[in-house]
Amino acid sequence: MDVDKSKKFLKGFGIVSFFILLSRVTGLLREMATAFFLGASYITDALFVGWSIPNTFRRFFAEGLVAPAFVPAFTKAKEKKEEEKAFASVMGQIIIITGILSLLIFILSPVIPHILSPGFSPEGKRLASFFTASLSFYLLFISCATVLSAFLNAFHIFGVPAATMSIFNLAVIIFMLIFSKIKREDLGFVVGVMVGVVIQIIIQIFPILKIIKPKISFNSNEYSKRIWDALLPVIAGGAVYQINFLVSRAIASFGGEKTISFLTYAMRFFEFPLGVFVYSISYVSLPFMAEGGKSRKESFSRAIFFSTAIVIPATAGLILFSKPIIYFVFGYGKFVFEDVIGTAEALVMYSVGLIAVAISRIFITDFQASGQLKIPVISGIIAFLVNAVFCLILVEHLKHKGIALASSISSFISMIFLIAKSDNKKIFREVLMGFLVSFPALVIIFISSIFYLPNYLKIPKVSSLLIFGGIVLISSLVLLGALKKFNRKTLME
User: Fold this and answer.
1) Residue 464, CB half-sphere, CA atoms under 13 Å: how many?
2) What's the half-sphere exposure (Cβ side, CA atoms, 13 Å) at 234?
3) What pLDDT is recorded for position 2?
4) Is 105 within 8 Å of 136 (Cβ atoms)?
5) Distance from CA of residue 417 to its chain's centroid?
6) Residues 201, 146 share a domain
7) In angstroms, rounded to a whole number, what is the distance separating the alpha carbons of residues 16 and 2?
8) How many CB atoms lie within 10 A of CB 21?
9) How far is CA 214 from CA 84, 205, 209, 210, 444, in A?
10) Domain check: are 129 and 237 in the same one?
11) Which residue range is the domain that position 205 belongs to?
12) Which of 94, 183, 310, 415 is 20 to 30 Å from the Cα of 440, by its Cα?
């Protein structure tokens, strides 16, 4: 195994995981600040409608193109010593695409609220139109910031790009605070978003200046062509995801009162280990996979190993401690213990499929890095169809549990399809090693659950929370120690 690349991977994984966790915390603070300053009213309704359009397109044209287009293009350019050429053309094409879209959103801003929020009052529609126009060019700026991030990632620079989201969140909070002096916190949100995204661009320019002299070219070449090749699969994949979400929610509405609420609350905890750890692993692995050859295979194996080593104990923890987790976070006020039980049941069913989602994420990253863009889209379509069928079958008898279980079943089917289509089929060794490395942490989790679960409601809530926190801390430290020991041994070999 390449020792230098392994060390870069581990360093990158640690940095990105930390900053993603920090972005989750600052994101929560941003939501709390928004609720504090703006509350819930026709103004916030209008603001969120205006914010939703550029934010939705961001997922397609910024984040959606990172894996299949940006990073592979810059990685190939690095090999050919054509970094400046690739940067100029890729940035130029993104400015054309997202600039035109941003302009269209701006021009159509008076019409958009009538389509997305026809029930708004005339004043609500006017405000939604104003916010849509004000935030329309966020799409252009965030897409440019994403290109900068991808370029730095191709050179294995992960810290600066990963830190930008937290800075963005803080900018929004600060400007809402400033504008609260004139009672226009809504304008503070808008200004904070635009200033925050400009700061994201500025702070990434400095490390790029050490590599190239950034230029912009609107001429297409082999590097920018990757964007156009990836565009249709990215849009198709995003559309399938949105349709899957809407269909699942529609079927869930037949599960009775509170079903959708249970699923929504449970999903937040299900996504935590994915967002902080698995997506960090795939994010850091991408530029190594894009290099192809031995680097791709080693990075893929490493990503599968680390994902399973982290996700297996996370799955055990979420399943065994589902009730305490929901109880400590949501079990207050009108969220009664019956709601705790319902949400915990949904979390258990979601968690069954956690390892399938994690492994699928690594396979999808590998397919995108190697330019096989149709396979993830087909996988998404299969997952959608399987999920819809099992939702219909299970919702009547299992309610919210059935909807969550259908999601897990579809994740396993999708994973099997991805494995079958990949030339990296031999993952048993990596999964087994991940399990063995996580075994000491699993033992702690299982033994703790035997003594803790029957008693967590019998002792004061604060004491119970501290004990639970101790279990999480000790099992995490044991897992971290096992990973370090295994990695040191592997590098010595």
Assistant:
1) 19
2) 24
3) 58
4) yes
5) 22
6) yes
7) 21
8) 16
9) 7, 8, 7, 10, 51
10) no
11) 1-223
12) 415
68 and 211 in a common domain: yes
How many folded domains does the chain comprise?
A: 2
Question: Is the pTM of the predicted complex or chain greater than 0.85?
Answer: no
User: Mind spelling out the 3-state secondary structure of the chain?
Assistant: CCHHHHHHHHHHHHHHHHHHHHHHHHHHHHHHHHHHHHCCCHHHHHHHHHHHHHHHHHHHHHHHHHHHHHHHHHHHHHHCCCHHHHHHHHHHHHHHHHHHHHHHHHHHCCCHHHHHCCCCCHHHHHHHHHHHHHHCCHHHHHHHHHHHHHHHHHCCCCHHHHHHHHHHHHHHHHHHHHHHHHCCHHHHHHHHHHHHHHHHHHHHHHHHHCCCCCCCCCCCCCCCHHHHHHHHHHHHHHHHHHHHHHHHHHHHHHHCCCHHHHHHHHHHHHHHHHHHHHHHHHHHHHHHHHCCHHHHHHHHHHHHHHHHHHHHHHHHHHHHCHHHHHHHHHCCCCCCHHHHHHHHHHHHHHHHCHHHHHHHHHHHHHHHHCCCCHHHHHHHHHHHHHHHHHHHHHHHHHCHHHHHHHHHHHHHHHHHHHHHHCCCCCCHHHHHHHHHHHHHHHHHHHHHHHHHCCCCCCCCHHHHHHHHHHHHHHHHHHHHHHHHHHHHHHHHC
Residues 155 and 275 in one domain: no
Q: Looking at the structure, do residues 309 and 210 belong to the same domain, yes or no?
A: no
Q: How far apart are CA 487 and CA 493, in angstroms?
A: 10
pLDDT < 70 regions, the chain: 1-6, 40, 66-67, 242, 246, 488-493
pLDDT of residue 290: 83
pLDDT of residue 5: 65
Instruction: Answer yes or no: do 234 and 219 share one domain.
Output: no
Residues 308, 435: contact at Cβ < 8 Å? yes
Instruction: Give the model's pLDDT for residue 492.
Output: 45
End of a domain among 191, 223, 255? Answer: 223
Picking from 181, 200, 223, the residue at the C-terminal end of a domain is 223
Same domain, 186 and 234: no
**CA dist., res. 94 & res. 214, Å (int):** 15
Cα separation of 299 and 71, whole Å?
Answer: 15
